[in-house]
Amino acid sequence: QVQLVESGGGLVQAGGSLRLSCAASGRTFSTYAMGWFRQAPGKEREFVASITRGGSTTNYLNSVKGRFTISRDNAKNTLYLEMNSLKPDDTAVYYCAATVAILSAERSRYNYWGQGTQVTVSA
């Protein structure tokens, strides 16, 4: 019911910053809680951050707390992930996803996924 397209990935040096965007189709974006996940080579897809429908509550993977910020602009049907102080361990394909749950860090709760955008952090 919603299509998601990530953008903003790229190559950045350690300590640098990058902002990812996720554009959603339709007029129902604000009815979904949203999340960011990532998958590095040889690893399982992991939760990164999530945000409630109105953006009032957020949740983060412990290793990105204080460095990453998830936000949304419902008027623009867009989700963001601001990433600061990037580390080589942050290298992964980043995916945005939508859920009808209030807020979730569980991959199984998300029904819609984007194709992902590559983030590479060099040492």
How does this structure look, described?
By secondary structure, this protein is mainly β. It is 0% helix and 48% strand. The protein has no helices and 11 strands. It has strands spanning 4-7, 10-13, 18-24, 33-39, 46-51, 58-60, 68-73, 78-83, 92-99, 112-113, 117-122. Strands 2, 4, 5, 6, 9, 10 and 11 form a 7-stranded mixed beta sheet that branches. A 4-stranded antiparallel beta sheet has the order 1-3-8-7, with no helix packed on it. Strand 5 (46-51) and strand 6 (58-60) form a beta hairpin.
Give the oligomeric state of the chains in this entry, treating copies of one chain as homo and distinct chains as hetero.
single chain
H-E order: EEEEEEEEEEE
Q: Tell me the structural class.
A: mainly beta
Helix content: under 10%
User: Which overall shape is indicated by the principal axes computed on the Cα atoms?
Assistant: globular
**Uncertain residue segments:** none
Output the radius of gyration.
Answer: 13 Å
Beta strand %: over 45%
What separation lies between the terminal Cα atoms?
A: 40 Å
- Mean residue pLDDT: 96
Instruction: State the major sheet.
Output: 7 strands, mixed
Number of strands: 11
Helical stretch count? 0
Give short descriptive properties of this protein:
single chain, 123 residues, mainly beta, 7-stranded mixed beta sheet, 4-stranded antiparallel beta sheet, 11 strands, globular
